[in-house]
Amino acid sequence: MFMILRQGAFHFLEVNTHLQVEHAVTESVIKIDIIIDCMLQLTVCDTMDSKYLEKPHSVSIEARIYAENSIKNFQPNLVQVS
User: Fold this and answer.
1) Is 28 helix (H, G, I), strand (E, B) or coil?
2) Is 48 part of any domain?
3) Angle at CA 76, nearest 5°, toward 65 and 14?
4) Which of 12, 30, 39, 68 has the smallest C-beta neighbourhood within 10 Å, fewest atoms?
């Protein structure tokens, strides 16, 4: 995870060697395919194209829903989400 400030400073919040579950949110906002566009380019070129630093084109939200039963010590509770 990283953060880019308005002044252009680039900060890592965390570094993981695997593709994050949330990568689909980034892909939908920036309009890129992280696997094809970024990972393969870095493998070949060792640099990233500046198009990846452009402002997002849209907004995206990802959510995880946990169904837990607080009466049963927060054990999983299978319910239908509609």
Assistant:
1) helix
2) yes
3) 50
4) 12
Instruction: Flag whether the pTM goes above 0.90.
Output: no
Q: Examine residue 82 and state whether it is found in any structural domain, yes or no.
A: no
Q: What is the pLDDT of residues 48-79, one digit of tens each?
A: 666 666 677 777 777 778 888 889 999 988 87
- Residue 21 domain-assigned (yes or no): yes
Where in the sequence is the domain holding 71, given as residue range(s)?
2-76
Give per-residue burial for 15-44: e unless 16+ CB within 10 Å, then b.
Answer: eeeeeeeeeeebbbebebebeebbeeeeee
Q: What is the pLDDT of residues 10-41, one digit of tens each?
A: 787 777 777 777 788 888 887 878 777 777 77
Helix, strand, coil distribution of the chain in percent, nearest 5: 35, 10, 55
